[in-house]
Write a structure and sequence with these properties.
The structure is a homodimer. Chain A is an alpha/beta fold. Chain A has 2 domains: 4-162, NAD(P)-binding Rossmann-like Domain (Rossmann fold), CATH 3.40.50.720; 169-288, N-(1-d-carboxylethyl)-l-norvaline Dehydrogenase, domain 2, CATH 1.10.1040.10. In chain A, 53% of the residues lie in helices and 13% in strands. In chain A, the strands form 2 sheets. A 6-stranded parallel sheet of chain A has the order 3-2-1-4-5-6, with helices on both faces. In chain A, helix 5 (99-110) links the parallel strand 5 (90-93) and strand 6. In chain A, helix 4 runs parallel beside helix 5 (99-110), helix 8 crosses helix 11 (234-250) and helix 8 (166-194) crosses helix 13 (281-288). At the A-B interface, strand 8, strand 9, helix 8, helix 9 and helix 10 of A face strand 8, strand 9, helix 8, helix 9 and helix 10 of B.
Amino acid sequence: MERIGFIGLGIMGKPMARNLINAGYPLVVHNRSQGAVKELAGEGAMAAGSPKEVAEQSDVVITMLPDSPEVHQVALGTKGIVEGTRPGMLFVDMSTIAPAVTREVYAALKAVEVQSLDAPVSGGEVGAKQGSLSIMVGGETEAFERAMPIFKILGKNIVHIGDVGAGQVTKACNQIVVGLTIQAVAEALMLAKRSGVDPARVREALLGGFAQSRILELHGQRIIDSAFEPGFRIRLHRKDLGIALQTGRDLSLPLMSTAQVAELMNALIARGGGDLDHSALALLLDQMGGGE
Amino acid sequence: MERIGFIGLGIMGKPMARNLINAGYPLVVHNRSQGAVKELAGEGAMAAGSPKEVAEQSDVVITMLPDSPEVHQVALGTKGIVEGTRPGMLFVDMSTIAPAVTREVYAALKAVEVQSLDAPVSGGEVGAKQGSLSIMVGGETEAFERAMPIFKILGKNIVHIGDVGAGQVTKACNQIVVGLTIQAVAEALMLAKRSGVDPARVREALLGGFAQSRILELHGQRIIDSAFEPGFRIRLHRKDLGIALQTGRDLSLPLMSTAQVAELMNALIARGGGDLDHSALALLLDQMGGGE
């Protein structure tokens, strides 16, 4: 069994690492704050003092970090992974970050004969705990196949999309579609409500036709119930749309509606709603339209 | 069997009227241009010279017209339906128009003891021909039940949403969700394509998760294939979003993304794309981003 290093033990990373321990993998962990490290050490993981030390003791190093700068620092910075590698090691970044940074890290590690996969996930904390995440993977087929037994512990819907960066691009696409569809459902159901038409009847009628979506089904119900506890937090979705927009700018592709929805998320965060579920875009619309 | 009057024999109205003839209903028809009138007269319909004359010879009068001004004129104008009614007649408007105009016509006809239903449809020309339209109905329950045998000839998914105008509001909601979801899918799949990632792989991966929608399934495939022949024409969808936006303005509800997508449709129409399918929002994005 491969020795796995796991860096980043947050809301997502900790239950993922725990699932690997429970599957019998030897695990070396590292995290900025020590609470989660001690917790997992009590369940059989070894603690390492730096990403470099994690790499020195691992065959496969997984990162699950908040954003692009953290991945860049952990992979390529001082005492970073790159300082502890040897040829044949595999690096798997499961964070959601900018495809451009993914490609930079990929190239730097390739220079020391380390293969990389970008493997961002969807499915949230519940999916992380249950080992039912969707995993969107970019990188070489050989590396993908090597990582597959590990991915199968962590997730269910595992798709090899294409070359390096393809996983991150797919995640960005996913977050665009989810964010904009929530806004679509919010505008429709608020229009119904303000018109004196029962939004629950509208939701049901629309689910039977071309307007059908999982967002209308799930987040439409949240909007009808004003059930805005997370779920997926607005501030995290804004971060993901920031990645999509930066990628669009790099390609001179004007993502008009993505930009608008990101700004609406900005407004919601400015009003103190950053820790609400992303379906709270409907709450913002309600307030913009004079509601309480 | 009730005698039916049918006004508006366009792409949608003509096959709908034909289905009623084939079901055995006595039909009186009226249309501005005479081609469709003569055609249906050859199949057993009677021709009438004005909406007033249609009303005089009918128990139920159905309209299927392009927009709000036409419905207002045909219902309440000179030689309009209102001049030919008697108490107990039923008026069913199946056009897609502004809920405010629906309510005005409803009130004027109620004053002469005529009940009204708003019953806009989705499903397009194919649905009209096959009698498989979705019908979203507003108005009194008694009137809805009276019209039900007729609706069953014309459609499949028939839902009584609520009081007068509720059908039109639901249709507006439907067009918001469909239009904005197409833009969402267009931005996502174009970002994938420009990033060098296969949009077909992205579509498949996204269909397995929260980003799933019928639009991603059907229009996502159209976008991948650049198959922009209609389908549902951009210029008709812009008209429908205009109704949604006017309704939002009447309620002081700021429909931010609906407004943006309507303007993108404007741009596409300005470039000569008004008769393309609404999935051609992706073509506009491609062109805005420097594509051919």
